[in-house]
Structures are given as C-alpha cells and as structure tokens.
Amino acid sequence: MNKLAIKKENISKERLDNLGISNAQFLSAASKRALEWPDVGNEWFVEFEPLKPLLGDLAYEEGVCRRDPSAIIKENGMYYVWYSKSIGPTQGFAGDIENDKVFPWDRCDIWYATSKDGWTWKEEGIAVKRGDSGSFDDRSVFTVEIMQHDGKYYLSYQTVKSPYTVRVKNQVGLAWSDSPNGPWHKLPEPILSPADNGVWSGEEDNRFKVEKKGDFDSHKVHDPCILPYKGKFYLYYKGEQMGEQITFGGRQIRHGVAIADNPLGPYEKSVYNPISNSGHEICVWPYNDGIASLITTDGPEKNTIQWSPDGINFEIVSSIQNAPHAIGLNRTVSTNDSPVEILKWGLTHIYNNDDYQSIQRFSAYNKTSHTAIGEKAI
Ligand code: AAL
C-alpha cells in the first residue's frame, strides 16, 4: 500500500471530486493528508458492535477467571478455543508474592472448550498445565494462541517462573499435538525470551527504575501468535520495555516478530523489531499475500488497522473505534476476499470486576451507507 506522492498533475479529477477538493492548486494540510492515504476504499473500515455474553460453561462464573481466548478453529463440526483459567481473587504485589496471586493471569493453566454454534460452549478440561516446581513455567501458563499446520496443532503461550516479582521476565512456551483434544507435548525450553540488554537500577523490585532500558522487549514478551507465512513461521508478540514510560499519551508497548523455518523453532527475532510503535494484544491475520494487524490500546497509532506486504513493514489502512481487547480471531473463515471478514465475529474478554474476567463474543460489520430513517440508499 504505497503512499501517493502528491504530484498535482497525477491527481485525477474523480479523486479530487471524491475527496471534496475543489482546487488542487490550494491544498490544505488536511487535503494533502487525505491524498496521501492509501487508496483502499471502504473495505478496511469496520464498526464493532456491543459485546454479547457466551452461554454454557463459558458464561460468567463468580470466583473463576477465564480470559485471553485463543483464535477459534473448527474440527469435525465443532469450534475449539483455548484460554487462561485461574481461580480466586487477585492480591497484587503488596503481600506475600510467593503464595498470593499477583495478577488475574497469575496461577493459570490453559483450558479449552468446544461449541457447535460459537455461542454455547462446553469446557473440556486442561490442555496445558503449569510445569513442575523449578521449571520455567512453574508459576503460570497463559495468554495462549493456536496454530493449525500440516495436520498438527501448536499452542504458544506465556510462561512465568515463580516467584512472580514485579521485575520478573516472562517467556513464551510451545506445546504441540496431533489432535486439538491433546495430549499436548511441551517443548522443554521456551521458544522466546525478553532481550537481555536492559539494566535495572538498585535492588528494589521496581520496574520503573533502570540504568538502561534496553530493547523494546527487554522486560516482557507477551501475547504470542504464530502464523505460517511465506514458507516460514512468523511469531508475532508484544514487547514491554524495562523502565516503561508513558510516551505519546500511552504505555511503551510495541510489537515484534521472530521467524523460524520450523513451527517448533528456533525463532530468531527480526532485526527490524519493533515492527509497531503502538498496540497491545496481538491480533494478526493474512491478507493479500501480506499480514494485517489490529492495533489497540496504547501508543500514537492505537485504534488502527495496519497492513504490511511482507509481515514486517506495516502501514495504517484504517482507523477504528471500540475494538475488543485480546481478540481470539475466527480462523475458520477465508481471509482471501475481504480484509476484515475475519473480524465479523470472534471472542474477546471483559472485566466483570478486577478479580474476574469472562470470555464474550464480539461482532463487527462494514459500514457501506449512511441514511436517515426512510431514506433510500442507491
Ligand atoms: C494482557 C496481555 C498479556 C499480559 C496480560 C495477560 O493484556 O498483554 O496477557 O500478560 O495482559
């Protein structure tokens, strides 16, 4: 999606008319920007509708936290989803972190559920448990994504080793199976870790005190999502930097990618990282030989959809409002024809309260007309 060079002689009369520009000799800054926008039409612009609760086992349950749904896949006529599940309230970091639950996503295992219609879900049980004491995933396994490839299934997910301190550096683990029902085989080592080039200042467990911040992912590697792309495997993730500050009115949250020849790795971080300057949870899908990415929550380009021809160099293609958080995309739909077909419905989570979150269903549509009551669109 190359930006237009503004050469007045190249601007068609139709385009000027469509943009409401009467005189190309006198272009305001806003008109110049309108001309610079990629000529993508209306197809990337979606309107998100109010969320709706799920039924069955994924309906809100007091005392239980279910959050960060994976993408949805379909097998033998059933939808499948994986998610983080934990029990009990969150105590935070003020008390006994060895025994408390510091975040709603602390002390999770990865569970899964199935559904015939995407509304009523049956919880099937645990897919991936926390590891044995002393292992890199002994404290929590959470924020999972599913990838289906060549008849095999891959779950990538965040891991934390105990104790869950403020300064703890999480990692990304991977488990594979021949069936969505498991059994799941965990890789013995993480597939991704934070950069090791930030320097904490002092001994206090304080993530804001640093001598050097390090790479964009020097503290956390979150929200992994692996896509098969161009014969390789692109592991998209969110990075958090040591000594996080507020920049451009938002947290210093950026996305990166690590690429492997084999789904099991090794994954090598792209030298172009970070590949976003904004965003939060990863939400990526293939489109038109490139990769699309929904950018929410943080940074100057929040609330946009972006597209890259190569999985790395993303440009804004639309702005959006009220995007659901932590989206689990519906990977059962084709992404060939419409860039946002995959956003028509899927899963997300809401905060019922600070302790408990539940999974809900989102939907969205393409706006194609704007009419008053009784008025006819052409
Ligand atoms: C989310 C995600 C990751 C974080 C936590 C649970 O917004 O970015 O998953 O670890 O919050």
Structural features, described:
This protein has 378 residues and is mostly beta strands. The chain folds into two domains: 1-37, Helicase, Ruva Protein, domain 3; 41-366, Glycosyl hydrolase domain, family 43 (Tachylectin-2, Chain A), CATH 2.115.10. Helices cover 4% and strands 38% of the residues. It has two helices and 26 strands. It has helices spanning 13-19, 29-36; strands at residues 46-48, 52-53, 55-56, 64-67, 73-75, 78-87, 109-115, 120-128, 140-149, 152-160, 171-177, 185-186, 199-200, 210-212, 220-229, 232-240, 246-247, 250-251, 253-260, 268-269, 284-287, 290-295, 304-308, 315-319, 345-351, 357-366. The two termini are 29 Å apart. Mean pLDDT is 95; it is low at 1-5. The site of 3,6-anhydro-alpha-L-galactopyranose (AAL) has 10 residues, from strand 15.
List its salient traits:
single chain, about 375 residues, mainly beta, Helicase, Ruva Protein, domain 3, Tachylectin-2, Chain A, 2 domains, 6-stranded mixed sheet, 4-stranded antiparallel sheet, 2 helices, 26 strands, binds 3,6-anhydro-alpha-L-galactopyranose
